[in-house]
UniProtKB/TrEMBL annotation:
Residues 114-127 have a biased composition (Basic and acidic residues). Transmembrane segments: none annotated. Keywords: Hydrolase, Protease. One of its GO terms (molecular function) is peptidase activity. The keyword Cell membrane does not apply. The keyword ATP-binding does not apply. InterPro entries: Clp_N_dom_sf. It comes from the Bacteria. This is Clp protease N-terminal domain-containing protein. Residues 100-130 are annotated as: Disordered. GO terms for biological process: proteolysis.
Length: 189
């Protein structure tokens, strides 16, 4: 499938692998793809993000996946849901980190081996969902090539950390589609 990716889409995936390595992750997750998208300039997805205000919240978004990872992968909605019966996820994370070290809930605590020995970073199920989702979106639009705009649409439409991050900044699948494919005053070219 990777041979169908445009140069921009390949650069996003490469950026995601670099983000995963920099964070000590053993696999590429959707949050890494989000960070790979945010690093791009001069592409259709970067144009759409700029139109949607990405320049204003780009730095804040970079910190959000790290915070989700610190909570053991729970999204904000995942931490708020247990609050009803009185479970404080932030307190649980703090206690686990006090006992086992910073990053312990994510499996990246001190003293643990966090990267693969050969330097490879396999794509985790959610990360594959971003690529597979991008393929489905491209096929639905009858487009032969998969661009970074397809990755953006896949991440914004699939439940998980990237979609939650986008939603927190008012970015929806509909708003991204409108910017990318028209239906409004601005269209990515």
């Amino acid at each position: 499938m990777f041979e169908r990716f445009t140069q921009d889409a390949r650069a996003v995936v490469k950026g995601a692998v670099e983000q995963a390595a920099a964070m000590g992750a053993t696999s590429v997750a959707p949050g890494h793809l989000l960070l790979g998208l945010l690093e791009r300039e001069g592409s259709r997805a970067s144009f759409a993000l700029a139109v949607l205000g990405g320049g204003e919240w780009k730095d804040a978004v970079r910190a959000e996946p790290a915070e989700v990872r610190r909570r053991g992968g729970l999204t904000q909605a995942g931490t708020e849901a247990p609050a009803g019966p009185g479970i404080d996820v932030a307190e649980i994370v703090a206690r686990v980190e006090d006992t086992h070290g910073v990053g312990a809930p994510s499996g990246s605590g001190r003293g643990r081996r966090t990267g693969p020995e050969d330097g490879a970073h396999p794509v985790r199920e959610g990360g594959e969902g971003g690529a597979a989702g991008a393929l489905r979106i491209a096929l639905a639009r009858r487009e032969r090539r998969i661009g970074d705009e397809h990755i953006l649409l896949a991440l914004v439409s699939r439940p998980g950390v990237p979609a939650e991050v986008f939603a927190g900044h008012g970015v929806t699948h509909e708003s991204v589609s409108r910017v990318l494919h028209g239906g409004g005053e601005t269209k990515a070219g």
